[in-house]
Amino acid sequence: MKPTFHHSLVNGPFKDPSLYVRLFWQRRALLFDAGDISALDQKSILKLSDVFITHTHIDHFIGFDTLLRAHLGNERQLRVYGPMDILEHIEGKLGGYSWNVIEQYPLKLEVFGIDENSIKQASFYASEAFRRIDRGERAFEGVVIDDEFFKVRAVSLRHDIQCLGYTLEEDFHINIDKAALSERGLPVGKWLSQLKNLIRKGAQDDTIIDIEGRPYALADLKNLAMITKGQKISYVMDVEPSEDNVEKIIGLVKGSNTFYCEAYFIDEDRDRAFERHHLTARLAGRIAREAGVRELVVTHFSPKYLGAERTPEQEALEEFQKQS
Ligand SMILES: [Zn+2]
Ligand SMILES: [Zn+2]
């Protein structure tokens, strides 16, 4: 089944972590973490509408300036999500520049700080010289974005500081049964996207769809659509190896098609992992196995393993593939 989004890491495992997700049909993309993103071309950066930051350590956040610079002249609103203190960090980053001649620029930044139970929003507009405009706070129950086509969820984890783990999940795929379409003598046309949208929204069966001037009830057309479960991808970086984190991550990433996970240290260096609040590759493998994910992609390795005989990737995959 053809997925509606394509995902890939921006850099190799020894460089800053960032995951780029292109949403087909929407001319739009998402980014998980903004480490060094200089490998992304301008066009790809300008497609970004939503950026999800796990935490604001420099290797996950230094790319914010690149994003900001590229988006200054962009009409599209740019939304940035992160742990609760991201509001202060973005305010601080913006405060590091002089903004006296940018009133004409269209950029509207909307920033969302998330903790266990609440989500706080602030706006920063170029037209207002990026002064902070607080938009209040609302309850947070795990869903960051509930889009027409997908959901993004987040869970608060610990990395000494607060760190968010994310999943991106398509609601479901709808494909049109071409054979059934021609059997009924119905033409291909724009009404097919309307049909898909109505099914996605759970519209009433008696909703009317116009096909070349003739009215059809939704109930009469539903059997042309083949519905399958959408894909789920997860992204978890920089978390301490506590059982509390492990349990929360398993709950979040359960059943993912692809799980992107940090594996900063190998098990032999687990004391370092505890000290530095990172997972080990073996633990990443165990989490992926217990969560029943289909594919595990580990990244964000300590530079000490560059050229090493045993890589975090080998260790993680060995553990992942063990029979439980
Ligand atoms: Zn990191
Ligand atoms: Zn970190």
Notes on the structure:
With 324 residues, the chain is of the alpha/beta class. Helices cover 26% and strands 33% of the residues. The chain contains 11 helices and 18 strands. The strands form 4 sheets. Strands 1-2-3-4-5-6-7-8 form an 8-stranded mixed β-sheet. It has a 6-stranded mixed β-sheet with strand order 9-10-11-16-17-18. Strand 7 and strand 8 form a beta hairpin. The protein is globular, with a radius of gyration of 22 Å. Residues 57, 59-60, 237-238, 300 line the site of one zinc ion (ZN).
Give me the secondary-structure topology.
Blueprint (H helix, E strand, L loop, with lengths): L4 E5 L9 E5 L4 E5 L9 H5 L1 E5 L5 H4 L2 H8 L6 E6 L2 H9 L13 E7 L3 E8 L6 E8 L3 E4 L3 E10 L1 E10 L1 E5 L1 H6 L7 H11 L6 E4 L2 E4 H4 L3 E5 L2 E5 L6 H11 L4 E5 L7 H7 L4 H10 L4 E5 L12 H10 L3
Parallel strand pairs: 3-4, 4-5, 5-6, 16-17, 17-18
Antiparallel strand pairs: 1-2, 2-3, 6-7, 7-8, 9-10, 10-11, 11-16, 12-15, 13-14
Bound molecules: zinc ion (ZN) (2 copies).
The site of one zinc ion has 6 residues, from helix 2.
